[in-house]
Amino acid sequence: MSFQIAIDGPAGAGKSTVAKSVAKKLQFVYVDTGAMYRAIGLNCIKNDVDIHDEEAVLKLLDNTNVSIKYIDNEQAVILNGENVNGQIRTQEVSEAASVVSAYKLVREKMVALQQELAQTTDVVMDGRDIASCVLPDAQVKIYLDASVEVRAKRRYLELIEKGKEADLKTVEDEVRERDYRDMHRENSPLIRVPEADLVDSSYMTIDEVVNTIVAKAQSKFDE
Ligand code: DC
Questions:
Q1: Atom 1 in ligand 1: which residue has the minimum CA distance?
Q2: If the chain, 223 residues long, is cut into consecutive pieces of 10 residues, what is the mean pLDDT of each piece?
Q3: Same fold, 1-14+126-223 and 29-121
Q4: Which of 15, 16, 31, 33 for a ligand 1 pocket mutation test, highest count of atoms within 8 Å of Cβ?
Q5: Atom 11 of ligand 1: nearest residue by CA position
Q6: 222 C-alpha to center of ligand 1: Å?
Q7: Superfamily of the domain at 29-121
Q8: From the alpha carbon of 110, which atom of ligand 1 is closest?
Q9: Which of 21, 44, 67, 92 is most exposed, with minimal Cβ within 10 Å?
């Protein structure tokens, strides 16, 4: 069996930065599952499909092909033959992904793809339901958290750095809203499975978080 590291947690906890770095250190493949839900959200926007109309989203899903490719060790999400990496990081796509990822059939399709990727390859996979649903037998399970205030501040600074206008209080409200949606949906809500190690990144550097996870993995290699 392949070696699997599952990293779950809320938006803004630093999952993707950390997961990417852990994968590089261990020479594993990094799988960003959020990017797949973002591709589904983007597809709805491109096709003018109302994301709140589940039936319409599912109809479109039938004609949607999402796959993953690795280009220079970077994950590329391919939506109906097109590399959409450059289009999935907007606020609009993020909102759409959060809504469509709540639909059962959307999840089933993405989870099957994620499980297939992890079957024969050593992976670091991040998302919301990796330990609870996608890779329940992962050798290392991490729940990466940070306080709402810290996550909102990170997001706010990111926006300012990009030259965008932002208001800290509004960003904080958005973070709370997305947490609520991700944690309270009926299908595969974000949870910390009892066996997952909690890592709170609020006052840790990225290197500290990465080293903590790499050490946990290394202790499992030796078992
Ligand atoms: O991690 P992210 O911000 O790229 O995720 C985008 C959305 O997709 C987010 O609202 C939660 C959802 N998601 C999910 O439901 N399950 C996953 N495994 C990953 C992301």
A1: 34
A2: 95 94 96 96 98 98 93 92 95 92 96 95 96 97 97 93 93 92 91 97 96 97 81
A3: yes
A4: 33
A5: 98
A6: 32
A7: P-loop containing nucleotide triphosphate hydrolases (3.40.50.300)
A8: 18
A9: 92
